[in-house]
Design brief:
The protein is α/β, with parallel strands linked by helices. The chain has 2 domains: 3-66; 80-274, Vaccinia Virus protein VP39 (Rossmann fold, 3-Layer(aba) Sandwich), CATH 3.40.50.150. 38% of the residues lie in helices and 19% in strands. The chain contains 12 helices and 9 strands. The protein has helices spanning 3-16, 22-34, 41-44, 51-65, 70-74, 98-105, 121-129, 142-154, 196-201, 215-220, 224-227, 243-252, and strands at residues 76-79, 82-85, 111-115, 134-139, 161-165, 176-181, 228-237, 256-262, 268-274. The strands form 2 sheets. A 7-stranded mixed beta sheet has the order 5-4-3-6-7-9-8, sandwiched between helices. Strands 1-2 form a two-stranded antiparallel ribbon. α6 (98-105) packs parallel to α7. It is elongated. The N and C termini lie far apart (70 Å). 38% of the residues are buried.
């Protein structure tokens, strides 16, 4: 079988399994099986598929058909122009989170705290984009901290990033001029509506607080002023219906300049505020 036929058969199989973009996924999986860049798949389309590549491709397609995420099969996910290693121990980086990155980069910062760092995609990206900055990423999961540290090393910021196991601020000392977080904000009642890829293969503690989706913000907000420099900023990623509720929490804690920032789909995505300057 030539590669083009293998791709067509795989795409049809994935389409029948309900995969959202079967042609794209088939292309990525064949590239991974053949150890080539996805951009080269069209070049090998007229060529026969080597038996070992065909075997690997078959296994990958079989797993994708039962909704194992592509990122877990190939071990990486693109985020803000960089490849991050991922696993089922961490939340997959999402395009929506790039709104938080853009908002953070709109003002200077030197010392960053990333609460619930997961894959490290937020902290590592901010440090890569701001070569003068340093930062700390904390997570309740030791496996997540290990994954984040590996990404920091692979993307060249390990000398400016530290990672530690901590339940939000519990193990954090010092003050920061930027605190960022993408906490679990999906309400427990919303979990059954998630895709199989997310619900069955990503860590539940990174998705939901087991309640109304606001529990993590309620836990984090009281500690902000003790860990922000005067005039320092906090940025939270939120669910699209949570903007006003999270903004109210920040206001009640004494933060100022509170604003809600939309993503590219014009949905509320980031809430930010500042510690008083004095």
């Amino acid at each position: 079988m030539i590669a083009a036929q293998a791709l067509a058969a795989a795409a049809a199989r994935l389409r029948a399994a309900g995969v959202e973009d079967p042609a794209r996924d088939a292309r990525l999986l064949l590239a991974h099986a053949a150890s080539i860049d996805p951009s080269r798949v069209t070049m090998i389309a007229p060529e026969p598929v080597e038996p070992d590549v065909a075997d690997r491709f078959e296994r990958l397609v079989s797993l994708r058909a039962v909704r194992v995420p592509v990122s877990h099969l190939i071990g990486e996910r693109q985020f803000y122009g960089r490849k991050f290693k991922v696993s089922r121990d961490v939340l997959d980086p999402r395009p929506e989170t790039e709104t938080l990155i853009e908002t953070a980069l709109s003002a200077p910062f030197a010392r960053v705290l990333d609460l619930g760092t997961g894959s490290g995609c937020i902290l590592v990206t901010l440090l890569a984009e701001n070569p003068q900055a340093t930062g700390l990423g904390v997570d309740l999961s030791p496996a997540a901290c290990t994954q984040a540290a590996a990404n920091a090393a692979a993307l060249g910021v390990a000398d400016r990033a530290a990672f530690a196991v901590s339940d939000w601020f519990a193990g954090v000392e010092g003050r920061f001029d930027l605190i960022v977080a993408n906490p679990p904000y999906i309400a427990l009642a919303e979990m059954p509506g998630l895709s199989d890829e997310v619900r069955r293969h990503e860590p539940e503690q990174a998705l939901t607080d087991g309640g109304d989706g606001l529990g993590a913000y309620r836990a984090i907000v009281p500690g902000l002023l003790a860990h922000l420099q005067p005039g320092g900023r906090v940025l939270f990623e939120i669910g699209p219906t949570q903007g006003q509720a999270v903004a109210a929490l920040l206001q009640s804690a004494g933060l100022t300049g509170i604003a809600i920032h939309p993503d590219l789909d014009r949905r509320d995505r980031v809430v930010g505020g500042f510690a008083p300057a004095t």
